[in-house]
Amino acid sequence: MMQSLGWISLFPELEALEDSAKKLVSQYARIVEAPVGAIGYREGDHCGGYVLRLKGRSRVYKMSASGREIVLYRVGAGETCVITTTCLLGNSQYPASTVVEDDIQDVIIPEAIFHKLMIDSPVFRQYVMQNYGALISDLIVLLDEVAFQTLDARLAKWLLDMGNNTIQRTHQQIADELGTAREVISRQLKRLEQKGWLTMGRGVIEIQQRGELLKLANSNQ
């Protein structure tokens, strides 16, 4: 069944796809939806297709043997998933898992069609590799933060990156974001509260001193 390509405007680089490539995508790509809480894929699953996110957001995370989670990145509208691309290019299984945070709608290009497009379509191949490179760079930044920055500096950066002075997150949710234990985050937040840099309520953090948090966030650089 031929599918409309109206969604392609979300990915401007793909509007220049060759006619033959557009025909393949319109014929074989499918649009899927999933609600909040749905599992997109689990670690060890086979990758069956290339993902182009139309709307919504999902969290990609790695789980340790002890059950501790660290968030690797998120996939939002107009984006692709670097781990999915890695698995397709390397014919490997998923090394992480993903869960839907906001209802999603995706275009899925089947594995066989993805590989055909990578061979036959210079436009598609360039799009895939450029996005892949950019996302890998983001993962390297995460690795740098985990390996070389102290947890208090990473926590300060995370708080500032939320954008607002009022942050509605539990200590467990923050721990999952930073790949550590809830008790560790609670101790770190308590120290910051004692310094007067923030205040805490039930599931709410209020930033009081952004400038001091910024100094802490930059202390490892």
Automatic annotation (TrEMBL):
Tell me which UniProt keywords the record has, alphabetically.
DNA-binding, Transcription, Transcription regulation
Instruction: Return the CDD domains for the record.
Output: CAP_ED
Identify the InterPro entries for this entry. Answer: cNMP-bd_dom, cNMP-bd_dom_sf, Env_Response_Regulators, HTH_CRP, RmlC-like_jellyroll, WH-like_DNA-bd_sf, WH_DNA-bd_sf
Alphabetical list of Gene3D superfamilies matching this protein: Jelly Rolls, Winged helix-like DNA-binding domain superfamily/Winged helix DNA-binding domain
Superkingdom is Bacteria
Domain (HTH crp-type): residue spans on this chain: 149-211
User: Which one Pfam family would you cite for this protein?
Assistant: cNMP_binding
Q: Which SMART domains match?
A: HTH_CRP (SM00419)
The protein's name is: Crp/Fnr family transcriptional regulator
Lineage of this protein's species? Bacteria, Pseudomonadati, Pseudomonadota, Betaproteobacteria, Nitrosomonadales
